[in-house]
């Protein structure tokens, strides 16, 4: 009987969604709106004849839709692309998100909503919709233009920041407020987790996917990729982060596989089916009568989103050195909210910190801004012209001067080379430090989940902790050696720069040497503190620590060359995966 | 929490299935076996660590797998292909199914199993596996050979007969035995339903699918096709037939759309994901310990399937006029059981008429025969040679004579032309009669479900019945006129053949005329009886019938030309859909 109900629900959802999506396609509107309308129709508030029997099953399937949606976004994201769009996208996205968070919060407070509601409203308003922009630019035939490339860059950065935002909001909702230190700890742990699994994943996932793809059967490839995806989502959610993060990261990892086109071909239909479910489930939460009651906030928020996003994104682009016309076009392209806003809204609901009305309001605002998007993009050129004409002369002068100044900012010649070297060394140190910290974190996580409670060790918690700690330490030895070597190099480079040959006479060499030693020492101290703080649950008793450290030192001394070689090979493999598409 | 469990189950299933399917692919074995093994591993009987939390969700998804599996089979099936392979496939499939049903039943009885268990065992043994044969022939590179084409023809016919078998088994299980008359009624109704929805569907479904496909978005096409599929499955299951039938028929209907390749591209990944679930769910039902207990039956049944299928299929092919060597190859290709056997086994379980052990036994036999299939196909040539050598001379003579006789059987010249004309007329009469009957059946079904209980009519059941009956009658007028005209033509043709010019002298014309009138009269009487019997629930009061008949007669007389035109257009549209691919 349960299966019959399920079939009936599925048939209802798919039939109604089919009709509305065909209709919206014919009307030239985004299909996503059709799905949401279908959800309103089959939901508990509209037509009783179409009522769904088992909402929970539809919602479970919609979770799958969210996972596949973000996985597909991750597939289109790539670390290489991100490096290309670089700073401009980062500036625009940060500017947009921070300002929109603030605007959204203020709007919420004006309506006398609670702090949490206002905060979530700000978060919802801060992230634009990749799905809607992509389809709008596609339909307008503007996908290849320069501004569109910048918009996609901003969207990529936004997707990452949105995931961070999700983690932050979860933290705030659970602790009740934003304490700077715990928030930093949350962010730090999250960053370490992301860095660790990205690097570990880059070494493993593309290889596994390509190995499976070699077999030549789409069926097996699909099942294996889904296994990786769901498995990783499960792990991520067990660690207390959102499945959205896991899905996006797994997508970014699979995107580095050679067989990406085949993966995309088999995944897209699944994404289409389940994301239809996702949007239908969103529609099902809307009560049209309640929406009518909130008509004023919906209109105000819509206005705030459109005006706010156009202004903040255009401002960000301009500050990052883009010309005025392109900046306005970028702003117009990003002026709507979509799937991430729904994810944030549902997060608020599931954490029981936001009010019921917030979700339908977000959906209504998304629908209105989505409808406006194509018109805004078309209108951006006249708007830019009008804005330029309205500016007072002195402001126009300042703007032109700013554009010229930022254009001259980049370094040239030898100092640029030295800066590039320093930047590379710092990057190496940061990444390897992050990896070490991530290793200790993962070991601590495994320890908490009883991974080291094997029979032989179960007698003595101290012994268990020592083993766990030793495992993490041994595994991180190649990274530790790398950090030390890069820190040495950095120290020497900085010493040479800081103490010119003229200074200090015969002591010159000694001063340089001292400086060159100080930097690796400092780096290692920071690393030690970090590890001690992060892995406090698996810190062995003090006397054991000293023994272990001594043993580790001897081991490092003996195996120095092996460790250097291991790390070099590891780094080469990583660079190979990342540079594959460039060649 | 429910969603987390669901995600965990999905992750477990997909991870284990991913590993086993990659493994089986590397070993060169069918991936399906990998899925089944994965099911055993995550099922309740093997590894407690991998236990699935919510079996019912996995089973619900496996129902989707079954629907999509049969839909994909239907997509590959096409009415045109069926016309080409024609009689040979029908003879082989009928021969195989009837004999294997009997062999299976006898085997079951020898093991002292109940009548129902034995009957279902026979049914399971009677249908070969399209999925396994297709992949085996693909891997052996034999897909283009003539015997492979015949094998595919047999599989198509088998798929149809299997669906009929499912309906019959349901009937038997519900009534407790096979009474000839109710069974015939079930079969007749089923045939009418299939004919009616195939013809109605051919006029509608390809057009709808092509219309949606014109929009150009795969997403919308996918959702619309799924809507049609699930909706039709729901209707079919509401009418008391299996969803498998609905899925297969909808596949056959969509297969006539011009945009079939696109539909196949978007549907296949979904089928792959959910059919993996389907086979995993099958594996979950297996208890290895129980299977060990039933090792002897499994081996005996495996032997019976292999030997029985090779012999019965080869016999059927030979009787249908294929040469000996090809016949043995066809037999070897068809010697295994697969997905349909699982569907039949699960039908028995869900109707509570078969024992628990039957399902795992079927799965084990399927696994063994699947493993044997490639070897059997490779061995078929030597086997055929050996068999020819072993035959006594007289039998070989008989066989050669039979082949020659059946080769000479087909008609030639004018009589062949006349036979073709008669066959066409009979077909037209049968199809139109079936359509009329189907129309009345559907109206009666709608009546029973309160479709005619509108306020105005609700006072008087007689009035309601009259309205329903009139609707059906008016809708079937074009078909009735067509039946009458074709019957007239048939009558004249037969009269001319039966009464040569030499007979009867001057009365010759009168005799011919009388004969020519008798046949349409007889056909109309049969039709009237059929309608009365089938639509007894909506038969109006007697005096109303006469009035309605009179009104119908006058209407027919007035609109004769219109009705002929309507039917001609209808027929032209149908032929257009069917002949599309030929041009």
From TrEMBL, chains A, B:
<feature type="transmembrane region" description="Helical">
    <location>
        <begin position="425"/>
        <end position="447"/>
    </location>
</feature>
<feature type="transmembrane region" description="Helical">
    <location>
        <begin position="467"/>
        <end position="484"/>
    </location>
</feature>
<keyword id="KW-0472">Membrane</keyword>
<dbReference type="GO" id="GO:0015297">
    <property type="term" value="F:antiporter activity"/>
</dbReference>
<dbReference type="InterPro" id="IPR006153">
    <property type="entry name" value="Cation/H_exchanger_TM"/>
</dbReference>
<feature type="transmembrane region" description="Helical">
    <location>
        <begin position="184"/>
        <end position="208"/>
    </location>
</feature>
<feature type="transmembrane region" description="Helical">
    <location>
        <begin position="332"/>
        <end position="351"/>
    </location>
</feature>
<dbReference type="GO" id="GO:0016020">
    <property type="term" value="C:membrane"/>
</dbReference>
<dbReference type="InterPro" id="IPR038770">
    <property type="entry name" value="Na+/solute_symporter_sf"/>
</dbReference>
<keyword id="KW-0812">Transmembrane</keyword>
<feature type="transmembrane region" description="Helical">
    <location>
        <begin position="545"/>
        <end position="564"/>
    </location>
</feature>
<keyword id="KW-0050">Antiport</keyword>
<keyword id="KW-0813">Transport</keyword>
<feature type="transmembrane region" description="Helical">
    <location>
        <begin position="150"/>
        <end position="172"/>
    </location>
</feature>
<feature type="transmembrane region" description="Helical">
    <location>
        <begin position="6"/>
        <end position="24"/>
    </location>
</feature>
<feature type="transmembrane region" description="Helical">
    <location>
        <begin position="220"/>
        <end position="237"/>
    </location>
</feature>
<feature type="transmembrane region" description="Helical">
    <location>
        <begin position="58"/>
        <end position="75"/>
    </location>
</feature>
<feature type="transmembrane region" description="Helical">
    <location>
        <begin position="357"/>
        <end position="377"/>
    </location>
</feature>
<dbReference type="GO" id="GO:1902600">
    <property type="term" value="P:proton transmembrane transport"/>
</dbReference>
<dbReference type="Pfam" id="PF00999">
    <property type="entry name" value="Na_H_Exchanger"/>
</dbReference>
<feature type="transmembrane region" description="Helical">
    <location>
        <begin position="31"/>
        <end position="52"/>
    </location>
</feature>
<comment type="similarity">
    <text>Belongs to the monovalent cation:proton antiporter 2 (CPA2) transporter (TC 2.A.37) family.</text>
</comment>
<feature type="domain" description="Cation/H+ exchanger transmembrane">
    <location>
        <begin position="14"/>
        <end position="376"/>
    </location>
</feature>
<feature type="transmembrane region" description="Helical">
    <location>
        <begin position="518"/>
        <end position="539"/>
    </location>
</feature>
<keyword id="KW-0406">Ion transport</keyword>
<feature type="transmembrane region" description="Helical">
    <location>
        <begin position="119"/>
        <end position="138"/>
    </location>
</feature>
<feature type="transmembrane region" description="Helical">
    <location>
        <begin position="87"/>
        <end position="107"/>
    </location>
</feature>
<keyword id="KW-1133">Transmembrane helix</keyword>
<feature type="transmembrane region" description="Helical">
    <location>
        <begin position="298"/>
        <end position="320"/>
    </location>
</feature>
<protein>
    <submittedName>
        <fullName>Kef-type K+ transport system, membrane component</fullName>
    </submittedName>
</protein>
């Amino acid at each position: 009987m349960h299966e019959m109900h399920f079939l009936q629900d599925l048939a209802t959802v798919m039939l109604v969604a089919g009709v509305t999506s065909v209709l919206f396609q014919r009307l030239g509107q985004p299909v996503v709106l059709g799905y949401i309308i279908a959800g309103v129709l089959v939901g508990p508030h509209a037509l009783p004849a179409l009522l769904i029997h088992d909402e929970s099953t539809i919602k479970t399937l919609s979770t799958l839709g969210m996972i596949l949606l973000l996985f597909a976004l991750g597939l289109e994201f790539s670390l290489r692309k991100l490096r290309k769009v670089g700073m401009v996208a980062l500036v625009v996205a940060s500017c947009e998100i921070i300002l929109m968070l603030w605007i959204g919060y203020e709007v919420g407070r004006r309506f006398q909503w609670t702090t949490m509601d206002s905060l979530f409203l700000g978060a919802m308003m801060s992230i634009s919709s990749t799905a809607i922009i992509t389809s709008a630019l596609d339909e307008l035939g503007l996908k290849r233009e320069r501004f569109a490339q910048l918009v996609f860059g901003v969207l990529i950065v936004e997707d990452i920041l949105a995931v961070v935002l999700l983690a932050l909001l979860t933290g705030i909702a659970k602790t009740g407020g934003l304490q700077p230190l715990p928030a930093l700890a949350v962010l730090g742990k999250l960053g370490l987790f992301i860095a660790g699994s990205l690097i570990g994943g880059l070494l493993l996932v593309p290889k596994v996917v390509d190995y499976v793809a070699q077999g030549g059967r789409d069926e097996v490839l699909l099942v294996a990729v889904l296994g990786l995806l769901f498995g990783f989502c499960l792990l991520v959610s067990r660690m207390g982060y959102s499945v959205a993060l896991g899905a996006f990261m797994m997508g970014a990892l699979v995107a580095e596989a050679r067989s990406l086109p085949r993966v995309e071909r088999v995944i897209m239909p699944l994404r289409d089916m389940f994301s239809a479910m996702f949007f239908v489930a969103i529609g099902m939460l809307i009560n049209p009568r309640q929406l009518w009651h909130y008509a004023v906030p919906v209109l105000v928020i819509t206005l705030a989103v459109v005006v706010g996003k156009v202004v903040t994104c255009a401002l960000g682009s301009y500050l990052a050195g883009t010309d005025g016309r392109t900046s306005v076009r970028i702003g117009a392209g990003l002026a709507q909210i979509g799937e991430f806003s729904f994810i944030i809204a549902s997060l608020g609901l599931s954490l029981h910190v936001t009010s019921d009305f917030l979700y339908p309001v977000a959906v209504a605002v998304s629908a209105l801004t989505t409808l406006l998007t194509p018109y805004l993009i078309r209108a951006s050129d006249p708007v830019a012209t009008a804005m330029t004409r309205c500016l007072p002369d002195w402001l126009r002068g300042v703007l032109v001067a700013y554009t010229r100044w930022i254009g001259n900012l980049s370094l040239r010649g030898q100092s640029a080379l030295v800066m590039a070297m320093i930047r590379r060394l710092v990057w190496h140190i940061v990444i390897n430090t992050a990896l070490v910290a991530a290793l200790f974190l993962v070991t601590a996580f495994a320890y908490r989940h009883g991974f080291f409670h094997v029979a032989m060790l179960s007698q003595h918690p101290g012994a268990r902790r020592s083993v766990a700690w030793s495992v993490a330490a041994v595994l991180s030895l190649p990274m530790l050696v790398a950090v030390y070597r890069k820190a040495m190099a950095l120290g020497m480079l900085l010493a040479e720069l800081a103490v010119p040959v003229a200074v200090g006479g015969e002591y010159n060499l000694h001063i340089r040497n001292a400086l060159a030693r100080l930097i690796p020492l400092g780096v290692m101290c920071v690393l030690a503190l970090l590890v001690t703080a992060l892995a406090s649950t698996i810190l062995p008793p003090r006397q054991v620590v000293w023994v272990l450290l001594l043993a580790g030192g001897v081991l490092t001394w003996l195996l120095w060359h092996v460790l250097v070689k291991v790390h070099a090979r590891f780094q080469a493999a990583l660079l190979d995966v990342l540079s594959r598409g460039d060649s």
